[in-house]
Amino acid sequence: MLDGIGQKLEKRLWREGILTWTHFLDTTTLSFINQQRKMLFDEVLSSAHTELDGGNAEYFAGALRRNEHWRLFDVFRDKAVCLDIETNGLPSDRGGYVTLVGIYDGQEYKCFIKGENLTADALNEALSQYKYLITFYGSVFDVPFLKNCFRRLRFSIPHFDLCFGAKRIGLKGGLKKIEQYFGIERHEEVRGMDGYDAVLLWQEAKSGNSKAMDLLILYNKEDTVNLFRMSDTIYRSLKASTGIDEYLNNNPQLT
Fold first, then answer.
1. What pLDDT does residue 177 have?
2. What is the dihedral of CA 19, 25, 28, 31, to 10 degrees?
3. CATH of domain 73-239
4. Can you give the residue ranges of every domain in the chain?
């Protein structure tokens, strides 16, 4: 949140008993931060407090570097949505298009299908209900692909990309591989399928095969729902990797 305060200086703040924004604001002076910078930092954190109290997720999408958006998971988890797309297998600038978009908020799965209900307006309306986006590799693939296909589509909320979050805690591979680490098993009808199978299912569905469409929707649903199942564990592992949990365990008087 504060320009110039990285992990090393953050840990020094912990040693001074400063674990929260309120602690920082209530501390008048710090020997390792000059007074002018302290006053500037106080202004930033005061503004952040106001925006947080107001639930302004878009503010934090810009206030934090993208690779730190995972830190907002615990704040906005109740208004989070997982998103996953399927395509026809071609790049978006060479004839590629989105065939299906699935979203899941921990309670309900919805899908938007090309030729039926998949429009920029429908997606904007659906996403406007949420304050936090969760994907797997979506910052590189899903979101840019959607933006190329739907120019009026807005993505202005914090984005937790589980692919890069998993890598930071030592879990490598694609979504299906990561699911294995968590003991997640897919529905037997789509077990073993991958993105190429999703392309073939779409081709069959276009020819009128309703079973293929049902399988494509189920495949996407498994992708999307499983993101939600993994997000909490990945978040907690990322939080632990900062050292804060260990620090608090060793200094219980600070909790």
1. 92
2. 50
3. 3.30.420.10
4. 7-65+243-254, 73-239
